[in-house]
Design brief:
By secondary structure, the protein is of the alpha+beta class. The protein contains 4 helices and 17 strands. It has one domain: Jelly Rolls. 20% of the residues lie in helices and 37% in strands. Strand 8 and strand 9 form a beta hairpin. Helix 2 runs antiparallel to helix 4. The two termini are 20 Å apart.
């Protein structure tokens, strides 16, 4: 039986959260724990308070749902396309794990769907990749950084974020888990956020490519991808420029609250 949430009842006040919870429960075939539903509602409320909600154009919470089908219901935008993930890849508390080889999600959002000078991508990694080089989310044409929106774990260790510019923003420090995001603020400024800290960069923007953004890999052509990730991800978002520190706080609180609500 699917529970129909009503705005304002038992603390669920956001219409987007009400609709999302109902859709997840329909996909799962059973109700969510109230604490999980409330965590989702609090996330939406917090993003609106921080004035970042409207910048999120595609978003999936890859945790909390009881089934993989439920986890692939989108909070914002169109649902992702599942490529090769199976039920055993999913954990309600920590999210979906890649295999570093064939498994990825198609976000169904084009790289250039957001403005050239206002865009972001982000993920929450419950555990980082075991491989030396892998892509968490994004697109990049071969040999062309300029049109890219991509973020990957680099060998060495480090996080690299390309955001439609000739150069990349790099953080050469170890990473094990947490929020990672990159945003373009304007035509000359980008920010990469890793381990709770922002790293700014001054790179002039270029026109974005037209490829569909994948998660757990990087698209290099209409039908080609590289650097598949074996990280475990519990969240991703794509959209316009926003405050990465605010999103980091909201996403981190969301994943913590979901974990606490699951018996």
């Amino acid at each position: 039986m699917t529970l129909r949430w009503v705005p304002g009842w038992n603390g669920l006040t956001e219409p987007e959260a009400v609709s999302y919870v109902a859709a997840v429960e329909a996909a799962d075939g059973q109700e969510l724990e109230f604490g999980v539903a409330r965590a989702i509602n609090d996330f939406v409320t917090g993003c609106k308070q921080d004035e970042i909600w409207d910048a999120i154009k595609a978003c999936c919470i890859l945790a909390g749902a009881r089934t993989l089908d439920g986890a692939l219901v989108s909070l914002v935008g169109g649902a992702p396309t599942n490529n090769n993930f199976v039920a055993g890849d999913y954990d309600r508390e920590t999210g979906l794990v890649g295999d570093g080889s064939t498994k990825y999600l198609g976000s169904n959002r084009a790289t250039n769907a957001d403005p050239q000078n206002s865009n972001h991508i982000s993920v929450f990694a419950s555990s980082s990749s075991q491989a030396g080089f892998n892509n968490l989310i994004g697109t990049r044409l071969p040999g062309d950084n300029n049109s890219a929106r991509a973020m990957h774990l680099n060998s060495g260790p480090g996080i690299v974020g390309y955001h439609n510019s000739a150069g990349a923003t790099n953080v050469t420090q170890s990473f094990s888990s947490g929020f990672i995001g990159v945003t373009r603020l304007n035509n000359s400024s980008t920010v990469l956020r890793v381990n709770g800290a922002n790293t700014p960069s001054s790179e002039t923007s270029s026109a974005l490519n037209t490829l569909i953004i994948p998660v757990f890999a990087r698209r290099t052509g209409v039908s080609t991808l590289d650097g598949f990730s074996d990280a475990r991800l519990a969240f991703y978002s794509i959209g316009e420029s926003l405050d990465l520190a605010a999103l980091d706080t909201r996403v981190s609180n969301l994943i913590t609250a979901i974990g606490a609500a699951i018996p």
